[in-house]
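I'll show an entry:

:::
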Amino acid sequence: MSTPPTNDDHAHDEPVDENLPARDDLFANPGLPEHHWRPTDVDPKAEKRAERQVATLFGLSAVCTILLIVSYFAFEIGEDPDVIGGFGASNLTIGLSMAGMLLFIGIGIIQWARKLMADQEIVEYRHPAASSEEDRQATLAALNAGLEESGIGRRPLVRNSLLGALGLLGLPAVVMLRDLGPTPHQVGPDKKIDYPGAGIEHTIWAKGMRVVRDVVGTPIKPSDLEIGDLVNAEPEALFNGGEDGEPLEGVVLQINKSKGAVVVVRMEPDDIIPGKGRENWSVDGIVCYSKICTHVGCPISLYERTTHHLLCPCHQSTFDLADSAKVVFGPAARALPQLPLEVDSEGYLVAQAPFDEPVGPSFWERG
C-alpha cells in the first residue's frame, strides 16, 4: 500500500530557481535608525537648563496646590457666595488650581523623559511566559539601568522638586475632609456647628420621643404589631421638628433621617434574652434597634422570623435581635445599638432615652 505524499515530499519536488537569493536573504534586517544626540546629551548648559525647567514645572504644581488651599478658605459659599466672572469663586479657583497642580506635574515628567532620561531604543525579543532565572536577572538589571539612566539619583533638584510637588498633593484632600461634616468636638452651643442630632456620636432621639412609621410618620401602638412583624421606623421629630419645634429641612433632615432610622420587631416575650441592664427595654416582646449596620453603615431590614436574625444585604453581617442584636455571622464588629422602649400616656411606643452608644460603622474611635 502506498502512502500519500507529505508536504515535505512536495517541497523537495518543487523546481528551484537558481537565480533567486537564498531564503535567509529574502527579508533583510531593517535594523534601527541612526541615533541622533539631543542638545542635552552633548551640551552641559542645555542639560542644566532642562533640569531647571523641569524643577520649575514641579514648583508651579506646588504653588497651585497652595493656591487651592488658600481658595478653599478665602471665598464664601452658600447663600451669598463670592463670584468671579459670573461663576462661583470657590469652585472656579479650586478647579483651576487643581487642574494646574496636576497639569504641571504631568508636563514636568514629560519634559524630564524627553530631555533628560536616556532615549536609546531597546529591542526585547519575545520569550515564554515562564521566564528563566537568567531572564529575571536581566530584567532586574534593565530596571536598575533605567533607574540610573533616569538621572533621579544624580539630579537632586529634579528629584526633590518632584517629591515636594507630590507630597503637597495630599494636602487638599486632607483640608477638604472637613466638608464631610462636623466632628463631635464641633457640636454644642458655643461650638462651630449646632443643630439637633449633630455629630457622629449623637442622634435626634430623646426621652419620650415617639417611634413612628417611616415615610408616613404615623405613631405605633403595641397592638398594631403581630408576632413576627418588622416595621421600619424613624423618630417623630423628623416630621414634627426638633425640640424647639422648628421643622427639620435640607441637610439637617437627611443627616438625622440616616442616623435615626430604626427597625421595630415583635416576637414572643419569652424568646428575648435581655442584655445586662436591658431587662425593661422591650414592651410586650417589641424591641427596637438601629437600622444602620455596624460594619460599613448599610441600611438593613432583611428579617428571618423563625430565627430572629436580621441580615445585612451588603456583606451578610447577621444580628440576633432576640439576643441584644449580637453578631452571629459576618464582618460586623459589634451589635446593633438598641433603643429602649416604653409606652406613653396615649399608648404609643416612645423612647425611654436616646441610644446609649453611637450608631453606625465601628471604624470610629469610641471612648
Remarks:
- The chain is about 35% helix and 10% strand.
- Residues 1-13 have pLDDT under 50 and may be disordered.
- The first strand starts at residue 83 and ends at 84.
- Residues 39-122+135-180 form one domain.
